């Protein structure tokens, strides 16, 4: 088992494994890193009268990247 300490180490470790998988009969499984995943948020019933920029500004003020 390989357990890298950072995302760069993880990516460096799995990079050569991709070429071995088919040619050498090696199989492996990896997990998605949290920083490679996206989070989506659906906000309903806010009304159509406010422009989207208002919501983007509020989320930006809260530190939420849109």
Can you describe what's shown?
There is one protein chain. The longest helix is centred in the C-terminal third of the chain and has 10 residues, at 52-61. It contains three helices and no strands. The chain has helices at residues 7-14, 17-23, 52-61. It is mainly α and 66 residues long.
SSE blueprint:
Blueprint: H1 7-14, H2 17-23, H3 52-61
Annotation keywords:
single chain; 66 residues; mainly alpha; elongated
Helical percentage: 25-40%
Q: Please give the count of helices.
A: 3
What is the residue-averaged pLDDT? Answer: 75
Rg, nearest Å = 20 Å
Question: Helix/strand/pairing class, anyone?
Answer: mainly alpha
Describe the structure in brief.
This protein has 66 residues and is mostly helical.
């Amino acid at each position: 088992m390989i357990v890298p300490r950072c995302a760069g180490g993880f990516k460096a470790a799995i990079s050569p494994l991709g070429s071995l998988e088919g040619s050498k009969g090696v199989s492996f499984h990896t997990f998605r890193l949290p920083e490679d995943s996206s989070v989506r948020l659906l906000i309903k019933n806010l009304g159509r009268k406010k422009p989207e920029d208002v919501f983007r500004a509020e989320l930006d003020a809260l530190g939420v990247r849109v």
